[in-house]
Amino acid sequence: MNLEPVAPRQRLLLVTCGLTLLSTVSLFAQSRSDVVPRVTRPPRPAGAADAPSFGEQVEATGRAPRQNLKTLVEFTILTPQFGGQLAAQRWAKLLSEMGVTPRMRQPVFGDELGVEEEVRGTLRMVRVTGQLNERGDLRFADRDYTSEQSRELKEWIDELLSYGALGAPAGKPLWGLTDLQFSDVYESLAKPVETEVEGLPLNEAIAKLPLPAEYPLHRLSAADAELERQPGNPVENRVQGITAGTALAIVLREYGLGFRPLRTPDGSLELAVEPLQPAVQSWPVGWELSDQFEQSKVAPKLYEFVEIGFEDAALQDVLDAAAAAIEIPLTVDYRATRATEVNLEAKLVSYPQKRTSWSLMLNSIIRKAELTKQVRTDEAGRAFVDIKPFVPTPVEKSR
Questions:
Q1: List of residues 6+ apart from 22 with CB closer than 8 A
Q2: Are 269 and 263 in contact (CB under 8 A)?
Q3: Contacts for 228-233 with beta carbons within 8 Å, 24 or more apart?
Q4: How far is the CA of 59 from the CAs of 13, 64, 144, 180, 273, in angstroms?
């Protein structure tokens, strides 16, 4: 069977019950869970009486909840033996404007770079020791800042003011929120997207999402830097009908970004946008289901047996057709797929005519492009199929 060339994402090949159909189809796209740590949806709290998980963490570390503390941050900057006076003056002025007490002095024996914390009653004193190098940059135990990175420095100081020497609770269960706080954020992100965002610039696409006003979106400076390195392509994914939290994760992931709830120094919550990285647990692209039985309940047509068959069809067309047939979104991690040099529009696949399920057919054709799939749900519990590059799990050799 031959198909005439048409505009991208407009041709649909659908072969079922012996019929061949050409049409236009909507598609929801994207995921990158190979970057995000495995996350399963936590059970929702039964009520406000549930024990706050972050409170337990605070007790375990000897750190009282922030609302009971006044936090002061003091910076000691060790200056070079020769020169550096102008840079020291510039940094001292900048640190003062950022709400910390700066102290510039020559190093003495026993000085070490680091962050220490002391709590006396309701006062928490955080003491930071850094070093000014000959280039005028600030060095700390685990980070460096140039004169052009004042915004990143301010973000770190805000973390110290809010969380003390331990820093922001990145990667901790429920992002350092109590069960009740997490439930509120989760429910606020469960509204479906009503307007399609495919083809829009990133900022315009995000503006179309029904994000909660009580949790403002804050793009961290590292995210801005990541976007500046990119050509500014429009959003490729179709997210209409998917809930806001999963849709936002889908859209951001096209640009190598993710988001997570973050407590701010004033005690409020925001949705912080930052580059995806293995060490940071971002809001997932959908929530994992426990087993195939549960998957068959939320996506029954995916496992229905029908007549399917086609020859030399573009893989993207087959995915579009499958999404229409199973009546649930089918998402693709286009960024990661392109990194493996797979072009879904150009990749031709065939499948022999036979009675089979959409799930088995998809498994067969995406395997040829070294892709894999997983059934996930959004914040409202609606299913979608997530397709991403297959990453083999290393097997440790027995001795």
A1: 3, 11, 12, 13
A2: yes
A3: 230/255, 230/256, 232/201, 232/202
A4: 59, 7, 31, 18, 29
Ramachandran angles phi, psi of 192, nearest 5° = -75, 150
pTM for the structure as a whole: 0.60
CB 248 within 8 A of CB 274: no
Task: Round to the nearest angstrom and report the end-to-end CA distance of the chain.
Answer: 53
Task: Point out which residues pair with 357 in neighbouring strands.
Answer: 305
C-alpha 135/C-alpha 204 separation (Å) is 40
The set of residues, in sequence order, having a beta carbon less than 8 Å from that of 1 and lying 6+ positions away, is 20, 310, 311, 312, 313
Question: Of 36-45, 87-96, 185-194, 253-262, which gets the smallest average pLDDT?
Answer: 36-45
Report the sign of the C-alpha dihedral through residues 151, 258, 191, 236, in that order: positive
Query: Phi, psi at residue 101, to the nearest 5°?
Result: -95, 110
Residue listed under structure tokens 């990667």: 171
| Strand pairing class (123-132; 70-78) | parallel
Instruction: Assess contact for 334 and 389: CB atoms under 8 A.
Output: no
284 closest CA partner among 363, 202, 392, 377: 377
Rounded Cα distance, 181 and 289, in Å: 23
Residue 377: enclosing H or E segment and its boundaries?
strand 371-377
Angle (nearest 5°) at CA 117 between 113 and 121: 160
Residue 255 three-state SS: coil
- State yes or no: pLDDT of 7 exceeds 70: no
Residue 258, token pair as written in the block: 């993710």
Distance CA 316, CA 259 (A): 28
- Helix (H) or strand (E) run with residue 95 in it: helix 85-97
Tens digit of pLDDT for each residue in 130-149? Answer: 999 988 999 998 889 998 89
